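TL;DR need structure tokens for one chain.
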Amino acid sequence: MKTYNTRFRSVEKLKEFLLSKDIKNSSASLVQIFSARVDQNKIKNIITIVQNLLPNSTIIGSTTDGEIVNGRVLKDNIVLSFTFFEKTTIEAGLVTFKEHNYFDSANKLAKKIIKDNTKAIILFATGNFINADEVVRAFRDQIQDKDIVLAGALAADGGKFEKSFVFTTKSLTDNGLSAISLNSDDLIANVEYSFNCEAVGREFKVTKSNKNIVYEIDNIEIKKLYEKYLGGSLSKHLPLSSYLFSFLLQTKNLSIARSVIHIQKDNSFVFGGELNKNDTIQIAFTNIEKINQKLNELLDKTTQHDIESIFMFCSNSKRRFLPSVGQFEAKSFENIAPTCGFFGYGEFYIDKDQANFFNQTTSILTLSENKKRQKELNLKITKPRGVNLDYEIIKALTNIAKVSSNELEELNRELKSKIDREVKKSVKKDAILIHTSRLAQMGEMMALIAHQWRQPLSAISATSSGLAIKAELDRYDKEFFLDNLHKIEDYVAHLSTTIDDFTNFFKPTKTKELVFVKDIIKKALFILSPSIAKNSIAIKKEYNSKTKVKTYPNEVVQVVINLMKNAENILLKREILDPTIWINEYERDSNHIIEISDNGGGIDESIMDRIFDPYFSTKNSEKSTGLGLYMSKFIIEDSCGGKLLVENIDKGAKFSIIL
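>> reply
TL;DR here they are.
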């Protein structure tokens, strides 16, 4: 086989080229046309010219964002590649997409062109909406268990992202696929690729997408995310700028770049390949330090094969943003064998190990009908020739981005570790405060328990004394004795109930329970009733709720007691003549509200914003812990998920518990 590559300048120049290379008409000839001119009439005219000169040849082609020919990288040119086979037949096909059904269209084309002895496929696709992953899956399904490789690219239109074309000898489309199969028992075909990107910065999660259409990332509209991270200048050049700053998707086996091919009216972005919901991605940038290493590796792999012709399909970012590197790659492969290709909006790649649609790669298809291997070539490189200061600047910027990203990740790890430590300390501190607060209340509760027990204990003592006197006087009356024994049992039961109520109060509820709010208030009033009665404080209650609330009842009881004790203390301290506490509970907007107010004169406005601070108290002389209101707010807001509010009202203060 032989391959000859040239630029199209005129019909006369093309005739001279064919004559100089002794190129003759043959049914085993493949002509590839790579056109920077995205002009349907111009392309058809070129096809006609080639058909007139080589009527038996098979033609396939694509529009481009740059062309590769004879070791050179070009733009705004039309490149022709003529390959003449000795032992290989060619089958061509083209399909048009219908209703975005990419898989079925690709499957139809694959079935048409794949033969029993197919060794290689060259595939081109138009793309402003295409899901290239579906195209790859369709061809992979037809290639399975066959020794077939595939290479190709997504057609481009000079960075405009408006309309591109693919075509064959007989057909042309701006919405479809064109492909050829190379069929032979003797053809040796291999594919290789090089990927130079790495992630910089934080991770993102795709939160709303439909296959290759992405709406939101981290719950942010994707357009706004690009504007935030690329800045106003670069974001104005989307989709093109996404080929310099792609998203990097980490799969099980490899990293794949994803770039934008279309922006829709609803500001969703169409990517060439899929980004599914919950995929983790990062912004990627070409690591210029790796380019030389990867190029050496790619050259090493390529020269292991039998090669007579090379076809390159490259990311347009390399031509646009790293032109010196793209130029040197093209020249390096031209030193091995005649090389031709183009820069597109993504690369198709299938071999025996993987099937993928890539961005940001250089992919290589090598062909030979001769089993004589290429002689060993000294192709080791240190850096692309002709690289100027721009290369060094990009290299420095890449390093800055990488180092800054690593430092930021380290700072984030340290910050997370510090936050975790402080949270643990805070949790421990809150546990200690809760315990301290409960101990402080326990002292008060012990006095209340003693008061609750005095009356039933006195009654038990009096009843048992009466029974003893009856026994001493030998005046046994069975009915009298049984009646008084039942009374003693009732007194003992009352004592036991009192202990249970106080014990449960000090036992935190582990799980939320459905309870009536009035039952919470009644329990608090029962515990405080001796003190309230002793100090002649009037309690005015109003219960209005008809439904239960799901909460931690014992914790809410503790808060109600705290608030009522505070009200009681202020009423006594200020010697209010008609001390009164109002308790009102009701439902509003799906919330249960408990209001506890008094006529104690209210809270000094100068300390209103400090009363919930730990250890703050206006009762130093009484040795208050200053934890009651702090713990009340903590319990209601942090534990129960509600709100605890305070305000001054006429003649007093009002605390509102919202559950």
